[in-house]
Amino acid sequence: NQEDLKQVETRLIINDVDGCLVPPKYDTTGEIQNGPNKATDRFFKWLRDYNSNSGNIPIFLTSGRSLQQMHGISKRANNQNLIIHEHGMGIYNPTTDEDLCIFDLDPQLNNFKETIPIFNSLRNHLSEKFEQMKKDLHNMGYKNVERIIMAPGKQFSVAVDLPYNGENGKSDRVSRLDFFKVIWEHIPDDVKR
């Protein structure tokens, strides 16, 4: 109903960065981008202009990316508002330089905080198994698996990019299901439980 919409007061906007505001696959810092990316540059210019007007509704940037990458995005956007990173697990306040974990904000979630060291251990364990994972994928029929990359800087989660399998001059992603099966085989049993 249009009348109801007119009465809504917007106090802030929370928007995902990757694939929503900015096309995927860009340099978060803007320092090593290979040539100008007009869509990305246009977004960051718009956001810098928008953020320079203190009368505008604040935009809080959010992403599954690490805080480190979100710092680069924020710098490019001249953003001084809260940054929501790692799929909402972390909330960073650039004015106070405080990074809060969602587990600290709600007493009901506090007992999940013990999972953070488990994720850190799992991240280290899996990164040591990448070469074996490539061999396992090769045995499943993927003959030219390119490098396996773990998303950098994560504090509260583990993210591994779906690798490419380059054959006959083209490169397609490895099947999600096959890659998950391979990762699952390398997760220690005590973590699986």
Which properties best describe this structure?
single chain; 193 residues; alpha/beta; five-stranded mixed sheet; two-stranded antiparallel sheet; 8 helices; 7 strands; 14% strand
Describe what you observe in this structure.
It contains eight helices and seven strands; from the N terminus they run αβαβαβββαααββαα. With 193 residues, it is of the alpha/beta class. The strands form two sheets. A five-stranded mixed β-sheet has the order 1-2-3-4-5. The chain has a two-stranded antiparallel ribbon with strand order 6-7. Helix content is 37%, strand content 14%.
Strand and helix layout:
Elements: H1 2-6, E1 13-16, H2 38-51, E2 59-62, H3 67-77, E3 83-85, E4 90-93, E5 98-101, H4 102-105, H5 115-127, H6 130-139, E6 164-167, E7 170-173, H7 176-186, H8 189-192
Parallel strand pairs: 1-2, 2-3
Antiparallel strand pairs: 3-4, 4-5, 6-7
Q: What integer value in Å does the Rg equal? A: 20 Å
- N-to-C span: 49 Å
Mean pLDDT: 83
Please report which band the strand proportion falls in: under 5%, 5-15%, 15-25%, 25-35%, 35-45% or over 45%.
5-15%
How would you summarize this macromolecular structure in one to three sentences?
The chain is α/β, with parallel strands linked by helices and 193 residues long. The protein has helices spanning 2-6, 38-51, 67-77, 102-105, 115-127, 130-139, 176-186, 189-192; strands at 13-16, 59-62, 83-85, 90-93, 98-101, 164-167, 170-173.
